[in-house]
Structures are given as structure tokens and as C-alpha cells.
Design a protein that fits this description.
With 234 residues, this protein is an alpha/beta fold. The chain folds into 2 domains: 158 residues, 3-Layer(aba) Sandwich (Molybdenum Cofactor Biosythetic Enzyme, Chain A), CATH 3.40.980; 57 residues. 35% of the residues lie in helices and 25% in strands. The chain starts with a strand and ends in a 12-residue tail after the last helix.
């Protein structure tokens, strides 16, 4: 299974807010064996949201969209999703009923448009906030508030499946340029994905769908590099 993540918000593009949602989602999807191939941030504009979502839903098995949910003037994500599918925005009786019966709100407390979703969407109830999310075919729409997004993702986490990957990290106490030849040998010797990341030492990340192969490749590296004495990050 492959996928894409789309985050919505002018505050992200202006650098006023760090896009922690994309990082968290990528980690969750990766841990479930989903290959994330695109992460894109778009402004709060219906046309931009619709264009990117329409492109990605045709190309990938799943698209996760976060941000811009709610009834205020700049919360236009649901309208963008509706436009991507050529559907109208309609009040979801299921979402409204949940908000009043389970969410603890009265209808008078809810701003007009709070429960508006693309026609035919499956509502995702917001257990720690107000604005509902939705699933439209292969597109999952979640809130931008991190805790709301994380809680809502758990409602659909089991729908993201793929081949789990095993990962080993070796931290080398050598310059990255000095490791090039050995990393080329590693790739030739083992059918694994290899990445190298300089920092406090050079983190050599080794991944594959075969746990034994991954461990063997990591052992091969450890025999051939000078290891850094710090613990590698997860």
C-alpha cells in the first residue's frame, strides 16, 4: 500500500507553525507498512486542495489530509475535498447526531456548517474536539489540531496496511564521505534499503521486509565501521 499526506494551512507555509502532523503521520503509516511517497502542504484555498487531492487519489492507494476543518471562514478543506470528487457539501445527520448525543453539544452551540461533509462521506467523530473528519473513498480527512488528529487517526489506523519493514541503525564514527564504498558494497551484498544521515556520528539506516536479512546486513556493517559510542535514535 502506498500513500500521500497533504497538510493544509497558511500558517504552515508562513513558517509560523511547525508541521508536526506530517512527521507523525508518516511515522504511523510507515510502521504499518505503508510507503509514503508524497508530503505536500497547500494553502487554505479550495482550488489548491481539490487539485492536489484529485491528483494524489488517482496515483496512490490512500491520501491523508489534515487541517482546515471547521465552520470558520478559512476552514475550507471539506469544500476542497468535495470539489475534488465533484460532490456537494451537505449536512451529515450522522455527524450532527453524534455531536449532540455523544459530544455533549446542543444544536444551538454548534456553528452552522460544523457537520457539513462531502455528500456520501463517512463521518469520523471527533472525540477531543468539535469538527468531524471524514472518509471519501480513499481520502481520509482529519483535523489539524495535533491531539484531535492523532485521536481520530486511531479510529481508522487498521485500514492502513502493508508489508511491515524491519529497521536496524548503526552509528558510525567516521565521515560520511569515507563510508561511500562500504555502503555500495552493502547494497550489492544485501537486498536492503540503506540511508545515511550525518549528525552526531553518521546514522546508517538499514531496512527490509526480512528481519533476519536486516539483522545480517547490520552485523555486516558493524564489522566494517568504527562505531560511535552513543545510542542510535529509534
Amino acid at each position: 500500500m502506498n500513500g500521500a499526506v497533504v497538510t493544509v494551512g497558511a500558517e504552515l507555509l508562513a513558517g509560523r507553525t511547525a508541521d508536526t502532523n506530517a512527521t507523525w503521520l508518516c511515522r504511523q503509516l510507515h510502521d504499518r507498512g505503508v510507503t509514503v511517497e508524497r508530503v505536500t502542504t497547500v494553502p487554505d484555498r479550495v482550488g489548491d486542495i481539490a487539485r492536489v487531492v484529485n491528483e494524489y487519489r488517482a496515483e496512490y492507494d490512500a491520501v491523508v489530509v489534515t487541517g482546515g476543518l471547521g465552520p470558520t471562514h478559512d476552514d475550507v478543506t471539506m469544500a476542497g475535498i468535495a470539489a475534488a470528487f465533484g460532490r456537494s457539501l451537505e449536512r451529515s445527520d450522522e455527524a450532527l447526531t453524534w455531536l449532540t448525543e455523544e459530544g455533549g453539544y446542543t444544536r444551538e452551540e454548534l456553528t452552522t456548517g460544523t457537520a457539513d461533509l462531502p455528500r456520501g462521506a463517512r463521518p469520523l467523530h471527533n472525540e477531543v474536539g468539535v469538527a468531524p473528519g471524514a472518509v471519501v473513498e480513499s481520502v481520509y480527512v482529519l483535523p489539524g489540531v495535533p491531539q484531535e488528529m492523532k485521536t481520530m487517526f486511531e479510529l481508522v489506523a487498521d485500514e492502513f496496511t502493508g508489508q511491515p519493514l524491519f529497521r536496524e541503525v548503526v552509528v558510525a564514527d567516521e565521515p560520511e564521505s569515507a563510508l561511500v564504498g562500504r555502503l555500495e558494497e552493502l547494497r550489492a551484498e544485501f537486498d536492503v534499503t540503506v540511508g545515511s544521515y550525518p549528525g552526531d556520528g553518521v546514522r546508517i539506516s538499514i531496512e527490509s521486509a526480512d528481519e533476519d536479512l536486516t539483522e545480517a546486513a547490520a552485523a555486516w556493517v558493524r564489522e566494517r565501521v568504527e562505531e560511535h559510542d552513543s545510542e542510535p535514535p529509534s
